[in-house]
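Our working data are protein records whose layout never changes between entries. Instead of coordinates, the fold is spelled out as a row of discrete tokens. Here is such a record, shown just as it appears in the course material:
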Amino acid sequence: MNEIPQITTEELRNRLEAGEDLVLIDVREDEEVSFGMIPGALHIPMGDIPQRTDEISKDAEIVFICRSGARSQRVCEYLQQFGYKATNLSGGMIEWNDTL
């Protein structure tokens, strides 16, 4: 398996501000996203990913997001084996919120 690409919160903010076309998918649970999500992110809980891959484009660069970066890393590892361009937000929403 290939190494999973990582993106920092600062890099993600810069790329979003530059208008780059990124797909953001938040894999946290419902109660977690109720506290806030990155604007424009799609919410697909980690446990739902295998049944909802038809909603995820294989052609797009996708950044997966969770609370700390651990669950989204596992989702990236899972999807990479099926040819998805999956990038993990290192530090997750903890770092995203800390850098506001």
Remarks:
- Helices lie at 9-17, 30-33, 70-80, 92-98.
- The first helix runs from residue 9 to 17.
